[in-house]
Amino acid sequence: MHDGLALITTIAASFALALVMGLLANKLRLPTLLGYLLTGVMVGPATPGLVVDLALSQQLAEVGIILLMFGVGLHFSLSDLLQVRRIALPGALAGISVGTSLGFGLASLWGWPVGSSLVFGLSLSVTSTVVLMRALEQRGTLKSLNGHIATGWLIVEDMVMVLVLVLLPPLSAFLGGSEADVATTSSLWQTISYTLLKVASFVALMQVAGRRFLPWMLSYVANTGSRELFTLCVIAVAVGIAYGSTELFGVSLALGAFFAGMVMRESPLSHRAANETLPLRDAFSVLFFVSVGMLFDPTVLLEQPLRVLAVVAVILLGKPLVSLLLVLAFRYPLNTAVTVGAGLSQIGEFSFILGALGEELGLLSSEGMSLILAGALISVPLNTLVFRAVEPLQKWLREQTPLVRLLERSDDPLAELPLHIASTEVTNHIVLVGYGRVGGRIGRELLAHRAPFVVAEQNREIVGALREQGLKAVAGDAADPAVLIQAHVARARILVITLPDTLHVPYMVEVARMLNPGITVLIRANSEEAAALLNKTHAGDVFLGEQEVAKGMLGRILTQ
Predict the structure, then answer these.
(1) Which has the closest alpha carbon to 164: 350, 12, 15?
(2) Angstrom distances, CA of residue 65 to CA of 282, 285, 343, 356, 512
(3) Contact 380/22 with Cβ under 8 angstroms?
(4) Is 416 within 8 Å of 473 (Cβ atoms)?
(5) Where are the alpha helices (DSSP H) in 206-343?
(6) How many alpha carbons lie under 13 Å from residue 23 in its C-beta half-sphere?
(7) Closest C-alpha among 157, 94, 100 to residue 124
(8) pLDDT tops 60 at residue 2
(9) What does the angle CA 129 – CA 434 – CA 532 come to, to the nearest 5 degrees?
(10) Where are any strands of DSSP class E within 396-464?
């Protein structure tokens, strides 16, 4: 390529081929991320044909990392994590521990040094946020309890990996990195202490100055009415803080961008900031995944097939199986356990960032990076197939595995109403399925009007809190007939379903009407497509948010 056009050639070739491969992946109902990685393999030095400038591609990838991590910080929600902290926190930590241990064990068997084995294991232990979020969106379960647990799980994993990004550079010499000859125990603790001090100083500065100045600056720019200035302000903050954190505090670009996003989230304009910068973030994210694909050497599939299979087994079986059993042990429904386990059976962007850092520090070889990329290239498409098998797998587990049914409901005090409740208290009552934002509002109004009701909710923490308030609540998935039976739907007057996920609603209604043919059914729909489907099946009276808002506003207009 012409030296003067190296940058243009790199960008043009990467975008054009990524578009083609992304469309092909989408056509095959696979994540587009897979197409971008394959694009990198095709334009990389390990394959014949067009080869773009690897150094330029990696610099563009750094911008992609900054914007990716800025987006993670911008969407970091402590409230989402707190809602499911009792399952997400121990679950994610256990999953990371198992994944890291399995990867570390494999690398040790292959004779790799401790540092390489540790980086390799950590890279296999973290799930791709992009792949999982898109899979949940496609299934319409992102806002359901399963989606909240998976999101909380991802938040914990991301926070752990951010900590790893902070600690790995000062630990690299001690772990056998490129500066292993200068590593001593005393210098190690001095380096770690100095690094943590710099990070703490950076975090303190962001918390004190950033929380006050950045939201004010964003509001000031927004008041100019210029859309391009607003977008420029957000990008300048993300890139500027990431660069400044590296130059002044020695903090990685990824960590600086993450904290910039977290601080920006404090602004009431954070949602607009996320929407305005989304196209640019997506574009540079594509370049990041393309550059990662360029590091992959396809010969590893032929030269090390058994190692590749072992890596895929860790990703697809190790952590997901432990996560599934852990969710069941916490008495969550089988549907939640299988969904979380399926979602964790792949690796992605944090694995690449960690692997690239390991290579830069001299801890991970090119073979290790190729094995990580091979695991991603194989696990991402297989993850789509795993998600499609969720429903059949649940059915098979319930029918063929008595232990699963025992773990799911046996000895769970929240799965049944207390025995002291009189039958008169659960007759002609309302069964309220779901106690989230919509169900909670309905429940509080019913309580204010002293209308009897029983809540059926998957989130055991919510059920426990309701029980402490003296309310009647049952833990479990209402798609399971046993849950509706425990809620005494057979003697209920009205069934109200407020779940954002309407996939299993027709079956819930079918079971309820089988037990109580005269019951009135009210259903919340989250989209026009879901509302049309529910109306077509005559499931009950369907309420769509936009329509109800329009009716309310129109009623107010007509009364004026």
Answers:
(1) 350
(2) 11, 7, 23, 11, 50
(3) no
(4) no
(5) 211-222, 227-249, 253-264, 270-294, 299-303, 305-313, 319-329, 334-343
(6) 5
(7) 100
(8) no
(9) 80
(10) 430-433, 453-457
Cα–Cα distance, 294 to 378 (Å, whole number):
16
If you ran DSSP here, which 8-state letter would residue 304 be given?
A: -
Residue 396, helix vs strand vs coil: helix
229-232 — which CB contacts under 8 Å span 24+ positions?
230/272, 230/273, 230/276, 231/276, 231/277, 231/280
Q: Domain limits of the chain?
A: 3-396, 420-559
The two three-digit tokens of residue 349, written as one number? 């962007």
Instruction: Name the architecture of domain 420-559.
Output: 3-Layer(aba) Sandwich (3.40)
What distance in Å separates the CA atoms of residue 53 and residue 287, rounded to the nearest whole number? 12
The label of the residue with tokens 């602004």 reads: 267
pTM score of the predicted model: 0.71
CATH ID of 3-396, from 1.20.1530.20, 3.20.10.10, 2.60.60.30, 3.90.870.10 = 1.20.1530.20
Helical H segments across 48-205, by residue range: 54-74, 78-83, 85-109, 114-124, 129-139, 145-172, 185-205
Q: Which of 414, 329, 415 is nearest to 87 (CA)?
A: 329
pLDDT tens-place string over residues 327-355: 888 877 777 888 888 888 888 778 888 88
Whole-angstrom distance, CA of residue 326 vs CA of residue 284: 37
pLDDT digits (tens, 9 = 90+) for 23-71: 998 888 787 888 888 898 888 887 887 777 777 887 887 888 788 778 7
Q: Which residues pair with 496 in a beta bridge?
A: 432, 522
Most confidently predicted of 272-276, 418-422, 427-431: 427-431
Provide the pairing of β-strand 494-497 with 520-525: parallel
Query: 185: buried, middle or exposed (CB in 10 Å: 19+, 13-18, 0-12)?
Result: exposed
Determine contact, residues 405/398, Cβ cutoff 8 Å.
Answer: yes
Residue range 495-505: mean pLDDT, rounded: 85
Q: What is the pLDDT of residues 216-264, one digit of tens each?
A: 888 888 888 888 898 898 888 888 888 887 787 776 777 778 778 877 8
Stretch (H or E) spanning 241: helix 227-249
Query: Which stretches of 449-499 are DSSP H helices?
Result: 460-468, 481-486
Tell me the three state secondary structure of residue 476. coil
What does the alpha-carbon distance between residue 399 and residue 409 come to, in Å, rounded to a whole number?
Answer: 15
**H helical segments located in 28-53:** 32-43
Question: 459 in helix, strand or coil?
Answer: coil
- H helix or E strand, kind and range, residue 330: none
Number of Cβ within 10 Å of residue 385's Cβ equals 12
Own/partner long-range contacts of 416-423 (Cβ < 8 Å, ≥24 apart): 416/474, 416/486, 417/454, 417/472, 417/474, 417/486, 417/487, 417/488, 421/472, 423/491
CB 136 within 8 A of CB 383: no
Residues in contact with 464: Cβ distance below 8 Å, sequence separation at least 6, in sequence order: 414
What is the reported pLDDT for 180? 46
Torsion of CA 77, 83, 85, 88, to 10 degrees: -80
Alpha carbons 527 and 355: distance in angstroms, whole number? 40
Q: Indicate the DSSP class of residue 316.
A: I
pLDDT tens digits along 522-531: 999 887 878 8
Q: Which of 1, 100, 33 is nearest to 384 (CA)?
A: 33
